[in-house]
């Protein structure tokens, strides 16, 4: 009888120990203190903790979710430690992520998968795991008068500078000038900094370039930089002015807006006289007598219908070049040239054009995660090859088109024959 009681008692202890061990969740997501206010455009730190009864083996891989109007990236390297639970030793990896969003209210981070491996103890056999990081929600606040500021950045300070090549002054018709604007801010990534405003200037053609973004990390802190190049071509003679550019951001500590204005500049554009002989001039004068009335009539008609023609031209351009197609072309071009920075920019632009939640294929998720790892990881720099992302992206587009065509063909006829 004594032996039987001892066996029952040991069974109870083992069951209790297993139950307490079961309370240790292998994967958890930890948000910042809920009492802290987070703002639109601010870096929101998110932590994923992974626990295992043995040392980790190999790299841990995440399939990061796509969140509308947001950038969600992993930053730095994991911090590894150990902890005790009911007499058992657990090894812990803490991975940090950064969320930047242009949305306010309740923001949901969808559940996403993680793959990792660990030894049994220190040197035992390796076991692989495929777990799910649980979803989470957090509240993001919008500053007052947020709508009038468009794309919003939230930080205490942004350093902004510009250079001109050539410097403002005297130029000739047809000359170009390149303006380089550089922004940098602590606890930001380049993609989360604001683009320069679009400008339409009479007599000047404006060509915005593709921005260059970079991220410097040191001891867990990082500095994001965005560089924009804008090219101006001077088509008219005279004094032409390029308006000032103002960047505005929200200071979360002082709870007020700050701004930095790049001043307006003037260029004196000299007319370029086209050479021609006297004979050519005489012949041209005869031609002008014929074409002058026709030209005046066309100019008058164009001036009369200019508003309609402008709207019509803009609508045709938008139909031929919708934002999603433009972003698609830029993404595939960046993949072909293996330009990791431009691929990240184009990917974020393409995401912003999607009105529905994204359901990415496994191949595309892995390719995007690899893109983010190369850009934002703290390990040694390795060259990025864009072929995997391009192929996965094109396969996803083809599959979506097939599904759409199948759905359209399955619709009943509007007027079925009797």
From TrEMBL:
Residues 325-399 form the DUF7939 domain. Pfam families: DUF7939. InterPro entries: BatD, DUF7939. Keywords: Signal. Residues 1-21 form the signal peptide. PANTHER family: PROTEIN BATD (PTHR40940:SF1), PROTEIN BATD-RELATED (PTHR40940). This is DUF7939 domain-containing protein.
